[in-house]
Amino acid sequence: MLELVIKAVISYLLGSIIGSLVMGRVAGGVDIRSEGSGNAGGTNALRTRGWKFALPVVLIDAGKGVLAVLVIAPLSIPLIPEAAFRPEWIAVACGISAVIGHVWPVWHGFRGGKGMATYLGALGVLAWPALVVGILIWLVVLLLTGYVGLSTIVAAVAVAAYCLLITGFSPLFVFGLVMAGFIVFTHRSNLQRLRDGTEHRFEKVMIFRRLLGN
């Protein structure tokens, strides 16, 4: 149990390193939480600072999920008894902890992003086919609707369903289910704006609508 707790805490601390705030310091003290939507994630970075700023932000945030599952989870800790958990469960716990750290970062006043990039990084290590499914569904929904938040929510729920279909009740499905619920929670403001009709929409990516002339 001690091994699981230590690795989860390390993963949380790693997740608390926010890509946009790291890049903001490199750019001379920019804090995108004071710009645009006020979120520290990749979408707000893209809207407020452009792709040259947003790309390394997403890579850093996704990299945290990769490192948590690929490096921290299997790490051997001297003098600490091995956990009475299967390695898959430890990997899942580390992935979830990294996402939690991204959303509520201890290094940055517990004001982070919405967790999607870090979640995708962890998912890519745990099950890359599920990642491919999630990305494809995200793209389809985005191209149909133009809503990034809605696309993200639908993709996360679809990944959980895919994991259940392929693996049954497994550590991977639990990861997908917990993350789907978490993504819905962190995107609750997007859902509220959708209900109010005020959600930002990327009209330019709605190629199906343009092809149909609507």
Compact summary:
This protein is mainly α. 70% of the residues lie in helices and 0% in strands.
Q: Which percent range describes the beta-strand content?
A: under 5%
Overall geometry: globular
Structural class: mainly alpha
**Biggest sheet statistics:** none
Alpha-carbon distance between the two ends: 57 Å
Model description:
The chain has helices spanning 2-15, 19-26, 42-49, 51-72, 87-103, 116-126, 128-145, 148-167, 171-186, 188-196, 207-212. The protein starts with a helix and ends with a helix. The chain has 2 domains: 1-126, no CATH class; 128-214, no CATH class. Helix 6 runs antiparallel to helix 9 (171-186). The protein is globular and about 55 Å long. It has 214 residues and is mainly α.
What brief labels describe this structure?
214 residues, 11 helices, mainly alpha
Protein topology:
Blueprint: H1 2-15, H2 19-26, H3 42-49, H4 51-72, H5 87-103, H6 116-126, H7 128-145, H8 148-167, H9 171-186, H10 188-196, H11 207-212
